Amino acid sequence: MRFIPKCALICLLSVNVTIVNAHDFWLNPKSFHADTAPTKVPVKFLVGHANDVSPWSLSWDRIVALRTYSDGEFKDQIENVHVNNGLIKGFANVVLSEEGTHILGFESYHSFSSLAADKFNDYAKKEGLALVLEQRNRLNQNQDDGREIYSRKAKSLLQVGDTYTDNITKPIGHMLEIVPMQNPYTLKGEATLPIKVLFRGKPLENALVDIARLSVASPEKQEMRTNAKGEATFTIDTQGSWIVNVIWAVPNADQSTAEFETYFSSLTFGYDK
Questions:
Q1: Where does the signal peptide begin and end (predicted)?
Q2: Which residues face 121 on adjacent strands?
Q3: Exposed e or buried b for every residue in 38-70, given b needs 16+ CB within 10 A?
């Protein structure tokens, strides 16, 4: 993992300004299933909503880590990344060397966003950012622009062969992480999938989690807030591909840079075999 000195990070954040940052971000493999190992799985990095989806700007200065997590081990996949290069959009040829269920995990560096007060308030309400809303009300900041530094965490579940392993029910250490409590590839027909949301390694209560089909242009979302154990349960159909999303924000330690630090986390899996 590369580290950016604090002074360099502040300089980077000061110029990397975006207008809208609440778009979903996810890992989109060409297939969630492979018959045998070893195999290579092309994976796209996508951002957007519904009909407005585009490749994420994949560049070296935005990547903290890309790893696969198998039963008892992990492998760095950075060498298999191809960043944006003119007409070629960024992707990764992920190498899976053994059968089983694998987690592909990605982490980005921070970026900076500043939104006008009304847009920021609407965004915080829509995404259920309880600590943001509480602080802005308490400090009478609802008429102020909202500034945040944000990073993206994403996981995708890849299945090789017919050996289903339970390593995917364990966290991999992302700051904000969605953890399935059951291997979804062991489910049949219409089923329920329980998930747990962790923030800084601990169960996160009252986070707004949503799940939707990946393969539908305008998907209907199921939304649910996590309970005191950080858990929520959704109904899925094992004929489709799915994305689970959660966003969480906390007051930023350096208020001169941004008032809040925000994390976007997603989980994708699918039944395309």
A1: 1-22
A2: none
A3: ebebebbbbbeeeeebebbebeeebbbbbbbbb
Give me the helices (H) in the chain, please.
Answer: 6-15, 117-126, 130-138
Per-residue pLDDT tens digits for 207-243: 999 999 987 766 789 999 999 999 999 999 998 899 9
Which residue carries 């600590």 as its tokens? 131
Burial (CB count <10 Å: 0-12, 13-18, 19+), residue 8: exposed
DSSP string, 192-223: EEEEEEEETTEE-TT-EEEEEESS-SSPPPEE
Q: Which residues contact 161 (CB under 8 A, 6 or more apart)?
A: 34, 35, 36, 37, 99, 100
Check the CA dihedral 257-261-267-268 and report its sign: negative
Domain ranges within the chain, ordered by starting residue: 6-270
**pTM assigned to the model:** 0.89
Let me know: does 38 contact 158? Beta carbons within 8 Å: no
Q: Give residues with Cβ within 8 angstroms of 1, minimum separation 6.
A: 64, 65
**According to the model, what pLDDT value does residue 217 have?**
66
The amino acid present at 126, given as its one-letter code, is K
What whole-number distance in Å separates Cα of residue 21 and Cα of residue 6? 23
16 contact partners, CB below 8 Å, separation of at least 6: 111, 112
Task: Read off the tokens for 255.
Answer: 């208020």
pLDDT-wise least confident of 83-87, 164-168, 217-221, 240-244: 217-221
